[in-house]
Amino acid sequence: MFRFIYCTFFILAIPMVLVNLYLKSRQYPNYRKRWKEHFGIFKSPKFDKSIWVHAVSVGESLAAVPIIKQLLVDYPEYKIVVTTTTPTGAERINAVLGDQVHHFYSPYDLPWVVIRYIRKINPSLTIIMETELWPNFIFYSHKQNIPVVVVNARLSAKSARKYAQLTTPTNRRWLVEPITHIACQNVADAERFKMLGTDDNKLSVTGSIKFDLQLPANIGTKTQEMFGDWGSDSFVWVAGSTHVGEDEVILQAHRYLIDAGVNAKLIIVPRHPERFDSVSELIVQRGFSLHRRTESISNLDNQEVYMCDTMGELMYCYKKADVAFVAGSLVERGGHNPLEPAALKKPVLSGPHTFNFADVYQNMIDAGAAKIVEPNELAKVLEEFSENSGIGIKMGHAGIKVVEANRGAVSKTINLLRKYID
């Protein structure tokens, strides 16, 4: 009954889905040519056997990359199919892996669409990154005897409560029972999955793949190419992956620093490309001189704010900064990955909403590598860092130690996946 109701609501929502597809296609011309893939309509080569890796957007795609690279080495006889929900996720996969994998947009979770997808790509194993649990996707994979493994899985307390409120115990079992195995980031995530009805023998804790991130080989040269000598004699801070409602707070903090006499420079990186123009307008309205990444570096000079209006270059922005503020945390988005700046020995600041990375943040806070600040505290805390560089250096060294101490999730995950491939 639950699946019938679920499918009915999904079908009724299709007109709104099509409108959303149209709006997205206006922003991404290449997406306009490929939106039918969401309905399983695409030409594909014959797959004798494949491994299907499903990610959602940029974060999940980047987390999947080290897993995919190892699978390409270990199992060259398998085609690797990667699906993403968003165009930005697709861009990351194509930029990093190119034609080593076959990329398609993820199927909408309707029975006939999922079945069509499975028939076309013929997977021997389905790998779901993090917690993208689509009932029909999982059910029909299981029905075709395809192992479904959720890796790097996380389930926040907030999400667990929502699952518990929206579904009966019977329905929760219907969702999780077809899953072959769930490899969780930590013990707390495993306990939450257990509360939703997952058997102990289907759960393991492999750690967070995001601790295994590798710095780009060109991190130094590319950073210099992007910024030149801009900010070399200044206090530079970065606000990474900002969302609606955060830019105003960030710009207010930057204005405070400048008015207080701090020689401060701000790098701001909006999370979504559709916001680049509106954030740019806001920066100018607030009276700041602005340089956009897509402009010639010869125009950079002494601009007070540098906006990165490209995708995939956040790491280089973190590299340039003295302090990293990880956004998505001043509003209830749950925060973003603090391990990227930590791996670069940067002190990490965050707003109070960090439930997407709660355990990672707790680990970093305990080690003295990160600090949580309220919106009205941000400016004063930044001023303290500008006055005493030793604070940031000490936090940066603590951060890299946290990253190094928790590496190994990729190898544990690969060892788990081998059981279902071999």
Report on the architecture of this protein.
- The model has no long low-confidence stretch (mean pLDDT 91).
- α4 runs parallel beside α5 (87-97), α12 packs across α17 and α17 crosses α18 (389-405).
- α4 links the parallel β1 and β2 (79-84).
- Helices cover 47% and strands 16% of the residues.
- It has two domains: 46-208 and 408-421, Rossmann fold (3-Layer(aba) Sandwich), CATH 3.40.50; 219-405, Rossmann fold.
- The chain is globular, with a radius of gyration of 22 Å.
- The strands form two sheets. The chain has a seven-stranded parallel β-sheet, with helices on both faces.
- With 422 residues, it is of the alpha/beta class.
What attributes does this structure have?
2 domains; 19 helices; Rossmann fold; seven-stranded parallel β-sheet; alpha/beta; 422 residues
The number of distinct helices, counting runs of at least 4 residues, comes to 19
Low-confidence stretches: none
> What proportion of the residues form beta strands (DSSP E)?
15-25%
What would CATH call the class of the largest domain? Alpha Beta
Any idea of the CATH topology of the largest domain?
Answer: Rossmann fold
Distance between the termini: 36 Å
Helix content: 40-55%
The CATH H-level superfamily of the largest domain is: Glycogen Phosphorylase B
Largest sheet: 7 strands, parallel
